[in-house]
Amino acid sequence: MVLFVCFEQLSPIFLYNSVSWSTLAMNTTVVAQLQRQFQDYIVSLYQQGFLDSQFSELRKLQDEGSPDFVSEVVSLFFDDCSKLINTMSRSLEQPDNVDFKQLDSGVHQLKGSSSSVGARRVKNVCISFKECCDVQNREGCLRCLQQVDYEYKMLKTKLQDLFNLEQQILQAGGTIPQVDIN
Amino acid sequence: MEVCNCIEPQWPADELLMKYQYISDFFIAIAYFSIPLELIYFVKKSAVFPYRWVLVQFGAFIVLCGATHLINLWTFTTHSRTVALVMTTAKVLTAVVSCATALMLVHIIPDLLSVKTRELFLKNKAAELDREMGLIRTQEETGRHVRMLTHEIRSTLDRHTILKTTLVELGRTLALEECALWMPTRTGLELQLSYTLRHQHPVEYTVPIQLPVINQVFGTSRAVKISPNSPVARLRPVSGKYMLGEVVAVRVPLLHLSNFQINDWPELSTKRYALMVLMLPSDSARQWHVHELELVEVVADQVAVALSHAAILEESMRARDLLMEQNVALDLARREAETAIRARNDFLAVMNHEMRTPMHAIIALSSLLQETELTPEQRLMVETILKSSNLLATLMNDVLDLSRLEDGSLQLELGTFNLHTLFREVLNLIKPIAVVKKLPITLNLAPDLPEFVVGDEKRLMQIILNIVGNAVKFSKQGSISVTALVTKSDTRAADFFVVPTGSHFYLRVKVKDSGAGINPQDIPKLFTKFAQTQSLATRSSGGSGLGLAISKRFVNLMEGNIWIESDGLGKGCTAIFDVKLGISERSNESKQSGIPKVPAIPRHSNFTGLKVLVMDENGVSRMVTKGLLVHLGCEVTTVSSNEECLRVVSHEHKVVFMDVCMPGVENYQIALCIHEKFTKQRHQRPLLVALSGNTDKSTKEKCMSFGLDGVLLKPVSLDNMRDVLSDLLERRVLYEGM
User: Signal sequence: where (chain A) (predicted)?
Assistant: First the structure.
């Protein structure tokens, strides 16, 4: 019997997770190890704030019909990110005539995308980016832009690792564990 | 005539004599004539003279006498017969009148004399009245003095001022040399000189109270003259005066609050008196007058009254001060209590949350741990952890519950439930333990027990569980029986009348066990918190002792009563409780609880083939939303701009999701356009739902004004989308319940 306990969100740090194993196909210890690794990794990503609940929603949408749904969405997101960041850095290049309107729309897009994907840190940076835009603070915008760049690249690497792990598990014949974060 | 007239004077020397006679007669005549004139004159002048007639007579008499003497003048020389005749007539008349007057006077003179007497009498009377008036005046003055004294005395409520004023005023009014007041000491055996008018005694002078002179004074309420040599009067240094003035002493009753009756002057049963001594100035030969003594007595009485008033006032002031102090203290205590309660409530609120969360975590994770592979020792350890944490959780819940119960903040959560099922559930829960202890449990439900009732299911279960649990806990052998019935009248508590009202009834549950029993003396203690009967058997079973207290509180909340009967130690005991429950109207509405809920809608869980249009400028969002809807089985078309949306939208699409995150009104315009498009056609237009970053009132209003059927908060979770779609398709609008 498995106890499913729901807690109120105590703090950003999700100390208490409950884990449910939908199928325990413990053929080999390798698979088990990989799965545990995967689990720890993804949990750590959540704990460190890289991802939030939206990401888990995305993962829910992945099924036989669309097995690569998450990776597709994520790659689209990263492409979008790089394009937007390029456009925005170009706008911020000349200190005299910065098109804040364009910047604003770019940030808006980025914010929307990141929240759809569940990229928490990126989204948070976008929020502060938007504030800088509103007050037309060029320096602030530059800083935010740099941070966005850094964050999304960071996330990209992390998710890359995650997907690699997934692949390994699948190759080893195991199934990817579901991790529910409420 | 022959004789007189012819007589020739013998000697010429007689002529001198005759001359003298002549002159005297003349003067007599004049006098005689003038006297009546004077009389008449003066009588006329005086207003009152009662004897006029006598006066006339007298006047006539005198006039005639005068006439006679006048006529006599002519008789010295030779005179004619006429003269002689006249003379005779006059004489005769005079004689007549004189006799008449003489006779009259006999009557009158006594009268006149009596007038004199009366006059004397009146004079005496007048003198007497004068005296009396003098007295009255004195008295009146005395009265004035008394009033003034009283006024002075009563104008202050300060004891010392009263006494001092008395002495001063008395001294002034009566012109005393010395005036002293002796007060009884605390012991009551001596009189202490407390106040004097003139002499200041540095040493406190006392006399024993049992002196005969003092007793004499105390024995009467009147002022008593005492000897100037008595100890109480010997106040001033004997300075060789001739005669010491008279001394008067009077008692002054010292009244207590308790002496005063409403209507009559108090009977002086306390017999506490002070002594007032008044001394007249020496060498003055003054005496104590009666009115002065009366004055003194009156003053003494007034002083007594004034003193008692002062005493009353003092006491009432003291009482008031005391009350104020107490008030302040009470207020402080109340505020402290309130602070304490608030602090406790805050503490409880925090602890409630803080304590339960880790508790849950521990229990959850330990149970999970149990599921994994463990060595036997590890399993044992984990089981112990689990048991202890469960116990701790129960303890915490109990304590927290009890605190809330005491606060009165606990409220019953009413709902409809199945009573029969409840009992069976309780029994199922208890059965394992009972089986282990080999105690058969029997359940008897009365046939008229309603099945569906309204009440607090959880708490009722808690109560029954607690009682049955206790029964099982404290019984080592025998059996346990649980009986539930509807009670019509209560036979036990006299002040608790059970009257089943229309839709309510009283449920009585009797739990009888055959365990250790309870000493009848201990029964009242059972329901107190944390108290446990101190037998070893019960000690080993643990528990906080709160169970019964909590059950009692719950029972009371349910307007019921709980009690335990026992025949004594070793004879088992029966726990009985009554609670008030409501009867549910219809048994087939058992699904419905007291809180009205939205009726369950048959939900679409499968949206296969549902044609949906998604419009979103953001590629990532678009893809995510599409993925969501595809997962739910919809057929999704995506567009990335308003124009495209307008172009693509058709009657086949049942729902259009449009992203309205961008600020501005352009996105909403599309909704209007779609409306327009479809009013021209005959087909039903698709439902329009906005996906927005916020769902506050203004956004909702905006959406509604543009004709949108709903607004969703991005990002949408899977379950959310599922619910939303089914709601939408059912009701064609999404705004309520959001």
Answer: none
The CA distance from B241 to B244, in Å, is 7
Angle, CA of B328, B329 and B333, to the nearest 5°:
115
Query: A54 and chain B: CB distance < 8 Å anywhere?
Result: yes
How far apart CA B84 and CA B353 sit, in angstroms, is: 167
Between CA B278 and CA B275 the distance in angstroms is: 10
**Tokens standing for residue B399:** 């304590």
3-class DSSP assignment, residue B327 = helix
pLDDT in tens, B165-197: 888 888 888 888 888 888 888 777 788 887 787
CB A123 within 8 A of CB A144: no
pLDDT digit string, tens, across residues B392-442: 888 787 777 777 766 666 677 888 888 888 888 888 888 888 888 888 888
Distance from CA of B417 to the nearest CA of A (A): 26
The residues pairing with B81 across neighbouring beta strands, listed in sequence order, are none
User: Cβ separation of B371 and A72 shorter than 8 Å?
Assistant: no
- pLDDT tens by residue, A1-57: 333 333 333 333 333 333 333 334 445 678 888 888 888 888 888 888 888 888 888
Cα–Cα distance, B452 to B537 (Å, whole number): 39
Residues of chain A with C-beta less than 8 angstroms from the C-beta of B619:
76, 80, 113
Locus of tokens 């027990």? B449
Does the global pTM surpass 0.80? no
Report the run of H or E that residue B449 belongs to, with start and end.
none
B486: left (phi over 0), alpha (psi -120 to 50) or beta: beta
A52: left (phi over 0), alpha (psi -120 to 50) or beta: beta
The one-character DSSP state at B570 is T
Phi, psi (degrees; rounded to nearest 5) at A97 = -115, 90
Cis peptide bond upstream of A12, omega within 30:
no
Measured N-to-C along each axis, helices B376-407 and B290-371 cross at an angle, to the nearest 10 degrees, of: 150
Core vs surface per residue B600-616: b (16+ CB within 10 A) or e: eeeebeebeebbbbbbb
